[in-house]
Amino acid sequence: MPGVKEAMLRRRSSSKVTDAAPNHAEVAAYVETAGQLADHSGLRPWRVIEIRGDARNTLGDALAKADGAKGKDAEKFRGKAHRAPLVLAIVASFKPSHKVPHWEQEAVAAGVAHGLTLLLDDEGWGVFWRSGELTRTDAVRSAHELGKYEELLGWLYVGGLPAGGKRDRPKGRIRVGDHLSVL
């Protein structure tokens, strides 16, 4: 049985996915598993919003509004929101804490997102993380009904793998010396 190391080395983004997607119960199980990560003070400063079907139009319309796009340009944003049958919005939900700063709470939320990408990939789903300059705009915040102490980190686009199960081109391994030093 492959372990975590193999799953991490194998994981690739899948920018082209089919209309298949995990159901709500499967997503709930993945979220439960991804939530078992290092979390200073156990604040659980994150949540995930499941977006499917016509709700993806709300996302596309919010992105278009944030960009100021009209007409055909606005339709492009709606099309982007429909690039996968399931979109998981990853939200940092900051909790009051004198011990755990916001940056650390946001890192926990990002850790949940990464854990979800590993789980989804390992279960045979195609997944890619999308963010960008419109992620934290007022229109997008409003569409996701974010609270005062919340920030959107981005979206995981999830769907089936195309015939043959091919993912995007393989990544080369990192050059460890560029990223690891000794003090």
Automatic annotation (TrEMBL):
Residues 10-159 form the Nitroreductase domain. Its EC number is 1.-.-.-. Keywords: Flavoprotein, FMN, NAD, NADP, Oxidoreductase. The keyword Oxidoreductase applies. Transmembrane segments: none annotated. The keyword Oxidoreductase applies. Its cofactor is FMN. It comes from the Bacteria. Residues 1-20 are annotated as: Disordered. Pfam families: Nitroreductase (PF00881). SUPFAM superfamilies: FMN-dependent nitroreductase-like (SSF55469). Belongs to the nitroreductase family. This is Putative NAD(P)H nitroreductase. It comes from Herbiconiux daphne.
